[in-house]
Amino acid sequence: MRPYVVAIIGSGPSGIYAAEALCQQTDVPVSVAVLDRLPVPFGLVRYGVAPDHPSIRSIRNVLERTLSRPEVRFYGDVTVGRDLTVEELRGAVDAVIYAYGAASDRRLGIPGEDLEGSIAAAELVAWYCGHPDVHPDLDRPDAGDRDQVTPAIDAAAATRLVGSTRSAVVVGVGNVALDVVRILIRPTADLARTDMAEEVLTALQGRSVTDVHVLGRRGPAHTSFTTKELRELGDLDGVDIVIDPFDHDLDPATVGKVALRNLGVLSTWSARESSAERGSRGAGRRIHFHFWTRPTALVGDGRVHSVITERTKIDSGGALVGDGPGPELPADLVVRSVGYRGTALPGVPYDEEKARVPHAEGRVIRDGSFATGEYVTGWIKRGPTGVIGTNKSDAVETVTSLLSDIADGELSAGHDSDELGRLLAGRGITPLNMGDWRRIDAAEIARGQSQGRDRATLAHRSALLAAAEHEERP
């Protein structure tokens, strides 16, 4: 029986979990092509998980096993929408699964948000994770024009901002916000053991950050931290945690288990004496939590220097409303961590309001009807929610719909597995494959071990291609 050729756009967890689900079933033979605009796979596992969380980043070892299966091919450094259109891709395969994530960010919508020093968490995360979008090649500053996503800042701007910041404000109460807080204030000796790119480590060694303020517009019971990551802040050497007073007497029946655990951690911290109160010289660095507080304006002359806030409360109708002025917080850097947002890919249906691809159980809806052979999974399907593992069940739902359509005769196997390769070759495009990735992997390990650590991330696209022994394309 001829295999069904399925292309997956995006090699992050959602895309690779979809490939895994296709390969693990035995009813239908498949040939899977996983495409990514970057030279390397793994998406947010490589470029979104903080480098000081090696156990989470090691998930890529599991994902790599799927990409290494004989029925799967990795096509790296291929940009759908530039190197080939969605229509052309659909014409070369039997089905397409869109798994390209949510690359943009949500905004606060307040005055001063566009001042220098106000950035999205996604941009800062991309910088400290060594994403080539944010680390352009110095000899080819226009190299990023090949890509679909152009960040608002680059490495030079991020380095300048972080290096000149004493007080930072992080808006948001999720795990990404905690990652940003840790990276901004964590001792350099701790970060020097990670796989950060050398230039990022050098920039962080010059930090002068003493205070990081975390703003949550609701109370501590409404945070989306995982307790393990929250507790981690309390273990940072030389860092005090300062918490605004809050109501500890919440009804356990109205609060989830994770929220209760988080409340326990925060309550313990709020009762703990600071270094100054203990009579010592003080820790020198502080993390401040401000609940029931939201920013209303960023103030500055060219660059932000403070954040105007207001207190909040829940009114009788259950809505969040203002409850009077809050503190004006000093800030050389403001990082908004209020969620990611999906973006449109030319040729793919897109719901602007929801910032997602419209679908039902993973089947793409185009012009009011199911689009034959088009599916979606991951953040661009459901929105930026859940943890990495959430993508697995999400991908299974999508693949189940695809297999059901095959069983019902909605899809047929009409293409061979080499058709996509021939299409790209006809345009002079040589994608990176898993052999190329292994050479990059080996180069990063060797570079890191020469510096006394396990690996060192190669941040520039030219360095990645050189390590893969792959020729640069215009």
UniProtKB/TrEMBL annotation:
Its cofactor is FAD. GO terms for molecular function: ferredoxin-NADP+ reductase activity. Its EC number is 1.18.1.2. It catalyses: 2 reduced [2Fe-2S]-[ferredoxin] + NADP(+) + H(+) = 2 oxidized [2Fe-2S]-[ferredoxin] + NADPH. The keyword Oxidoreductase applies. The keyword DNA repair does not apply. PANTHER family: GLUTAMATE SYNTHASE 1 [NADH], CHLOROPLASTIC-LIKE. This is ferredoxin--NADP(+) reductase. It comes from Microlunatus parietis.
